[in-house]
Amino acid sequence: MDIVLEYCDYYLLDKVYAYALPKGGYVDTLIHQSPLFNTIAQFDLGKAIKTVPIIDHITSTNNTLVSNAINFNATSINSANLPSYLLNKVINYQNKADIYGLKPNLLPAGDFFSSSFLPRSSLFRESLSLLVITTLFGWLLYFSVAYLSYVYVFDHKIFNHPRYLKNQMSMEIYRATTAIPVMVALTNPFFLLELNGYSRLYMDVNDCNGGWKAVLFQIPKFILFTDCLIYLIHRWLHWPGVYKRLHKPHHKWIVCTPFASHAFHPVDGWAQSLPYHIYPFLFPLHKVLYLGLFTFVNFWTVMIHDGNYMSNDPVVNGTACHTVHHLYFNYNYGQFTTLWDRIGRSYRRPDDSFFVKENKAEDTKRMWRKQVDQMEEIRNELEGKVDDRVYIDQ
Ligand SMILES: [Zn+2]
Ligand SMILES: [Zn+2]
């Protein structure tokens, strides 16, 4: 995220913060005069950590906190010095060369680098900037990919499926558009940890043993790791209590359009994205590759909801497999492969009828009727007899 943030800061946000919140301006003076300020500053862990190399310039309150942490003697842990002990641990775990915003990295500093009283490295500024940037990027990616898929790939016959909902596409778009900013806000702590040097993300290819080979190897490793965790999280989301509270909104869509791809309860969408954000804290990952993989998973999510059954590959969890999940709920929880569904005995092979391109109208209707009968039985078990969905054929 530091790559994206540095470009945004250099070309736009440094200027925006400089004009909106300048050094010595009204807000700056007001905040520094506030009695709350020193109290808050004391608990601003990021600020305390970042000021370690320039300890002469920090306030006396922070000075004590940080000095205690640095000079901590590990042989004397007691309840009084426990906070200092923990802070010391956190500081030692941090890769200080990777802290974002203390100095320009990929681009020059620019005229407005230090014009705002909120420096690039401020946790508040980082959170706010990331919230706006990632939400806009999320919306852009969602609308552009889903729209292209809707025009060029999506099978529009789905509109006549008896379990397509009244106004379904607008409901999907509303659900996704409102969920994305909340998902981003929930993901922000991971981005902040990355920006402050706690992840294993790296930029120089030679920083990881194996160079380019290691970078290539990270692709299957990332897919396999996240596929496994998403499978487990998705199965957990189908536990009856959790399903009702979190996952049911995504299963409102019995048949999907590409706009269903991000139409989740925000906590559900965030939970299923956790493996993507946990990975770089456990394993080395190239920063540019991470951005590529982040974009790829969004593409993939749209693709498995587009109703176009191009592949019946036994290994890949493609569109047909995910359509089976939306139709019959308790099968095909995987994201990229069928591996974990096979191990967990939840794999259901998509019907061959999915792949017949030129079905006669009456054959299609017969196929849909059969799907509805099977679906109703499973849905009754999972959700109870009352179905609050309003279908087009009602
Ligand atoms: Zn599900
Ligand atoms: Zn889905």
TrEMBL record:
Q: Does the keyword Ribonucleoprotein apply?
A: no
Name the GO terms of the biological process aspect: lipid biosynthetic process
| Protein location | Membrane
Q: Which InterPro entries match?
A: Fatty_acid_hydroxylase, Sterol_Desaturase_Related
Which keywords accompany this UniProt record? Membrane, Transmembrane, Transmembrane helix
The main location class comes to membrane
Give the domain of life: Eukaryota
**Where does it sit, as one GO cellular component term?**
membrane
Q: Does the keyword Transmembrane helix apply?
A: yes
Domain Fatty acid hydroxylase: where? 222-344
Which Pfam families does the UniProt record give? Answer: FA_hydroxylase
| Molecular functions per Gene Ontology | iron ion binding; oxidoreductase activity
Transmembrane ranges?
Answer: 128-153, 173-193, 278-300
Listed PANTHER family: STEROL DESATURASE
Q: What is this protein called?
A: ERG3
The record lists the organism as: Candida oxycetoniae
Lineage, broadest ranks:
Eukaryota, Fungi, Dikarya, Ascomycota, Saccharomycotina
